[in-house]
Amino acid sequence: MHYRIETIVNKKLSPTYTKTLQTIRKVSILYDKKQDGLSRYLVLTTQYKFSNQENSTQAILKKIAYLFDRLELGADENRRICRVFNRSELKMRWQRLELEILKNNEGYALKSYCAKITELLSKEDQLIEFLHQNDMLGMFFNGNHTETMGGQFYYNEKQILEEGYLEIKAEHHHTKYSILWLGF
Question: pLDDT digits over 74-126, tens only?
Fold first, then answer.
């Protein structure tokens, strides 16, 4: 199944200025087989599109985003992620990518960010929690909910998620998440 996952963030920076950031991903989610009592999925992100112009920070974030372009996940009967089967592969890819990033860039904030990713990959429960975020894969692996606070999900008769959206509003921050089924 192929999906388009979009995140739009509107940040009110002043009374007269709002900044909009948009991320669009094309993701293929392929059911593989049952393994260890879980449904095994191969999740391939084939395209990332960021709304703001490419700068050095954006280039680094794009490289980091592609770290998660191939995931092997195990989900329970409620379609909640329980395992990341290729976590060791992700850790090895991250070690190479981190060396490349830190070789060409410097700064405390960047080193701290890299350390957080290293820690995230070292603990499967934290990685799963990260993957359940709406801007990652939480719009698909959402426990088969049809309604959530501020959102709606639509499934067809074969229980295929066709479309979903979720909005979170705060005083200076408005985030919209959406997922759209593009077909098989």
Answer: 999 989 999 999 999 999 999 999 999 999 888 898 999 999 999 999 999 99
- pTM of the prediction? 0.87
Sheet architecture: strand order including 161-170 = 81-84, 70-75, 38-50, 17-35, 2-14, 173-183, 161-170, 151-155, 147-148
| Contact (CB, 8 A) for 143 and 149 | no
Are residues 126 and 118 in contact, defined by beta-carbon separation less than 8 angstroms?
no
CB atoms within 10 A of CB 145: 13
Exposed / middle / buried, residue 26 (Cβ in 10 Å: 0-12, 13-18, 19+): middle
User: How many CB atoms sit inside 10 A of residue 25's CB?
Assistant: 22
Residue from 94, 156, 181 nearest 84 by CA: 94
Give 161-174 as a DSSP string. Answer: EEEEEEEEEETTEE
Residue type, 23: T
